[in-house]
Amino acid sequence: MAIEIERKFLVDKEKWQQLEKPTPMHLRQGYIFSDESKTIRLRIADDQAFITIKGSTTGMSRSEFEYAIPVADAAQMLDDLAVSELEKYRYNITYSGKLWEVDVFLGDNQGLVVAEIELDSEDEEFELPLWVTTEVTGDKRYYNSKLSIHPFKNWD
Amino acid sequence: MAIEIERKFLVDKEKWQQLEKPTPMHLRQGYIFSDESKTIRLRIADDQAFITIKGSTTGMSRSEFEYAIPVADAAQMLDDLAVSELEKYRYNITYSGKLWEVDVFLGDNQGLVVAEIELDSEDEEFELPLWVTTEVTGDKRYYNSKLSIHPFKNWD
Questions:
Q1: How far is CA B104 from the centre of its chain?
Q2: How many domains are there within chain B?
Q3: Distance between A109 CA and the closest CA of chain B, angstroms
Q4: Could you tell me if A75 lies within 8 Å of chain B, comparing CB atoms?
Q5: What are the CYTH domain coordinates in residue numbering (chains A, B) (predicted)?
Q6: Which end of chain A has the smaller Cβ count within 10 Å, N or C?
Q7: What does pLDDT average to over chain B?
């Protein structure tokens, strides 16, 4: 089990486009179950797959249990058991010694680019890259489980 | 992924008591989620633990995905995320070349003893041990996920 402490920001798409970027991973992920208290996620990341159980979010923190599983199992559970899913490209970018995960969403969430930084404590200080803008930590609309059900293209 | 084909029977408790039995495993199991279409189960079996995702039952068959996980993770998810749980002793008994799993339930399900046989096909023939009685395959009251919510002691 891990405690995941994350902060989440929107990305300035113009600045992002000008950035030199590494090759992204392709992520397909879906949810077998999701409510306020927990989420059960399946993710295929290129040629690897994982099942992840997350507890409820308190502030920026959330308990997370993640296990590698066969890709074929994940694909079949996504096809047969997931209630919703989404796809995105993920870029892992190191900035000022910290890892940023930048998700460029696809499909019905196309147009949305979100950057997350994982922290060691809630009060850890870090440097903001020039290409991040508004903080959206805690905004439930940006939870991936929500984006899979109520995608960006349907937002007002 | 496996397709699980099972038949389930009640056990004659007098005959069962007279039987010479192996040492059972102690199972503690609970459900993070359970409805008609799928079940997500955590199980601690003595010093091992598993997460198991099952699809809906069609006849005697059900898709099943099972992964070994750390016992400490399973215990924490059972404590923090499970909506219901139960405990039982499990006896693995080979009879006429087939494995029978006999569950002697504890706690609020005390008094219930159920035997399951796993088959290779739905029409596979097998020999019934003298200590099994009524078949209860497909009777939802005997689903472990149901017994964890509506235990045997509350039955009419």
A1: 10
A2: 1
A3: 27
A4: no
A5: 2-149
A6: C
A7: 95
